[in-house]
Design goal:
single chain, 19 strands, Protein Transport Mog1p, Chain A, 7-stranded antiparallel sheet, elongated, alpha+beta
Length: 297
């Protein structure tokens, strides 16, 4: 059987290598505490929870016991739960974290782990789910071994639906709009600066309504802000694609009295996708820095 291709999933600083057919299907929470799950188009295949203990040391044993009790309650006592030897996990994972692997069987099979990273202070519970009787220990081991809970370069990876990019770690997700045809992420920092990253599919259809050089004005309209003066634009190229860099002074809800917005947008005709990075209140050149991290043609 041909091995399925692998892709990177990135969310709130959590990074995991998963089969390419597994996609984000639900999420909630924030960087310090949250949840995300992926499915294969039919059923859930992976779920991950994370938290950052505030007042006491991480209690992996307590977390594992509570999770086992919740499984037993949900299955009405029909779940079989096993703790596994940490030696079954890749050496890298065991060296970097306190970690306890586990497995359970019920109406489904699962392999998972609980971990605590002394570096970033995150506690993670992750499990890979399989149809009953079809657990693939080798696949589960590879996926668990790929998990990271923080970056070492000060940038956090976000990767869903074939769209990957990184943002500086001080920026936290404020809103995500993951609609078909348009992915939009809004990040904010403690210093009231913000960053928007977007991908538009079927860009040629949108460009029939507004040419690429008119997009800066249209994007600002969608943000429901008021411009103070004209939009400054400079047409050029980015990764050998047509691009527009722009800047404007705006006001509106959620903004300071006057914010200077800067951005870069480009169109990839081969993929028929448009990409947009905008920022305000941060360091100069941030939109281009983020655009350079976009994993797309």
């Amino acid at each position: 059987m041909e091995t399925e291709s692998v892709t990177g999933f990135g969310w709130q600083g959590i990074g995991i290598s998963v089969p390419a057919s597994w996609e984000l299907s639900a999420y909630h929470g924030a960087h310090d505490e949250g949840y995300a799950c992926l499915d294969d188009g039919r059923e859930m295949r992976l779920q991950v929870r994370w938290t950052r203990p505030k007042w006491k040391a991480a209690d992996l044993e307590g977390l594992l016991r509570r999770y086992q009790r919740s499984l037993t309650k949900a299955s009405k006592g029909t779940v079989h739960f096993d703790r596994l030897d940490p030696e079954t996990l890749p050496k890298r994972l065991r060296e970097e974290k306190a970690v306890v692997p586990f497995a359970w069987t019920s109406n489904r099979d699962a392999h998972g782990l609980v971990s605590y990273c002394r570096g970033c202070g995150r506690m993670v519970l992750m499990e890979i789910l399989f149809p009953a009787g079809e657990a693939d220990r080798s696949l589960a081991r590879r996926i668990m071994g790929s998990m990271t809970d923080h970056s070492n370069d000060g940038w956090a990876l976000w990767s869903v639906y074939g769209f990957a990019f990184s943002v500086p770690a001080p920026y936290n997700l404020a809103q995500a709009d993951l609609a078909p045809g348009r992915l939009r992420f809004l990040f904010r920092s403690a210093r009231r600066s913000w960053l928007r990253v977007e991908r538009w599919a079927l860009a040629s259809q949108w460009m029939e309504k507004a040419a690429l050089d008119a997009w800066p004005e249209e994007l600002l309209k969608l943000m429901r802000v008021s411009r103070r003066g004209p939009v400054e634009k400079n047409e050029g190229s980015f990764r050998e694609h047509r691009a527009v860099r722009f800047a404007a002074t705006v006001t509106g809800r959620g903004f300071l009295r006057r914010d200077k917005v800067a951005g870069v947008l480009w169109h990839c005709p081969e993929e028929d996708k448009a990409f947009v990075v905008m920022a305000a209140g941060g360091r100069d050149g941030l939109p281009d820095e983020v655009a350079d991290t976009v994993k797309a043609p």
